[in-house]
Design a protein that fits this description.
Length: 233
């Protein structure tokens, strides 16, 4: 089944609304962003996310922290307040840093790869290998996202999905997950999942209205993903 990550969550009401849905990951942004939260805020939201999960009979979604070029000390300070399951890195972090994060903090590591929004050239498998082979054994997932010149990701725009297959092949061969972000909405996510079969999808602005998470849009997004999974099962 396709993993669904709702990113940029900032409020308790959204956390509560996610609990009945088939959401597998919830993202909290610690990098510079209009969706940025403090470690203390995220810690409280994570506790609410996990509360009652066992009684409901299914695991709570994994808590994902989004960072851009953090130091290990910065990550330690956040994790002391917010017990993250996953650290997602959106900058120019080295394989050595990725490995150190996994080893020191015992978390999963997602590494974002930026795809230029105006590029329709499909990279060769050899080019993808040259880009990513150095991350073998240091990451649990690769996240494809549309490049944003300011924040690195979170642009709310799509990239050319024809670029996905060589990254998917690399991920399969490397034994890691492939997630896709960038401009996803309830209107286009079913096509992405049906045609390109990523292991997961990641959405933020595509389930917002006037800059705030919209519960109806989140529900529609999750249902569209599930509809493809059920048809293919």
């Amino acid at each position: 089944m396709t993993a669904v990550k709702i990113c940029g969550v900032r409020t308790s009401d959204v956390i509560q609304s996610l609990k009945p849905l088939s959401v597998t990951h919830v993202g909290f942004v610690f990098a510079k962003s209009k969706r940025q939260v403090t470690p203390q805020q995220a810690g409280q939201l994570i506790r609410e996310l996990r509360a009652g999960a066992d009684a409901a009979g299914r695991p709570a979604p994994l808590a994902v922290g989004v960072f851009v070029d953090p130091s290990l000390d910065e990550l330690a300070a956040v994790l002391a307040e917010a017990p993250l399951d996953v650290v997602q890195l959106h900058g120019k972090e080295s394989p050595e840093l990725c490995a150190a994060v996994r080893e020191r903090f015992g978390v999963q590591l997602f590494k974002a790869v930026s795809i230029a929004r105006d590029s329709d050239a499909v990279p060769a498998d050899a080019d993808v290998a040259a880009q990513l082979d150095r991350y073998r054994g240091t990451v649990d997932a690769i996240l494809l996202d549309t490049h944003d010149p300011v924040y690195g990701g979170g642009s709310g725009t799509t990239f050319a999905w024809d670029c996905i297959p060589p990254y998917r092949r690399w991920a399969r061969e490397a034994g890691v997950q492939l997630l896709v972000a960038g401009g996803l909405t309830a209107d286009n996510v079913a096509s992405l999942v049906a045609d390109y079969r990523p292991d997961g999808v990641d959405v933020s602005s595509g389930v917002e209205t006037d800059g705030m998470k919209d519960i109806a849009k989140i529900q529609a997004f999750v249902e569209r993903v599930a509809s493809v999974d059920h048809t293919s099962a």
